[in-house]
Amino acid sequence: MKEIFIVEDDDGIRDLIEFLLVSQQYVVKTFPTARAFKNNITGETPDLFLLDIMLPDGNGLDLCKELKKNSNTSSIPVVLMSAHADINRMEGADDFIAKPFDVDELLNRIEKQLA
């Protein structure tokens, strides 16, 4: 089973995405903040990172840059999401999803990155 790490500060959105992905047979770990993500991923490598850009204690663009610089995670797809971001500033991410997102589009983009 493919594993996805989600960093999203909005509880409702995080729970919705987790529910959707688990229903599609993905293993999901969720993190509400950049700090929680950094403190709990030591040595773990998922198949995909799904990162919100606007976080209360950091931002997904910086997390993406860190993941892409790290030799252990540089080849893992990173999908950024935001309601506020300029789509041209993907900062090395593999894809971008604008909020609010269409559920089917979210699932299709994730499947495409994992193919």
Give the SSE map:
Blueprint (H helix, E strand, L loop, with lengths): L2 E5 L3 H13 L3 E5 L2 H7 L7 E5 L1 E2 L2 E2 H10 L8 E5 L12 E4 L4 H12 L1
Parallel strand pairs: 1-2, 1-3, 3-6, 6-7
Antiparallel strand pairs: 4-5
Give a concise summary.
This protein is of the alpha/beta class and 115 residues long.
Spell out the key features of this protein.
CheY-like_superfamily, two-stranded antiparallel sheet, 4 helices, Rossmann fold, 115 residues, 7 strands, 24% strand, alpha/beta
Describe this structure in words.
This is Response regulator receiver domain-containing protein. The modification 4-aspartylphosphate is found at residue 52. It is a single chain. With 115 residues, the protein is α/β, with parallel strands linked by helices. It has helices at 11-23, 34-40, 60-69, 103-114; strands at 3-7, 27-31, 48-52, 54-55, 58-59, 78-82, 95-98. The strands form 2 sheets. A 5-stranded parallel beta sheet has the order 2-1-3-6-7, with helices on both faces. The chain has a two-stranded antiparallel sheet with strand order 4-5. The longest helix has 13 residues, at 11-23. The chain is globular. The two termini are 13 Å apart. The relative contact order is 0.18.
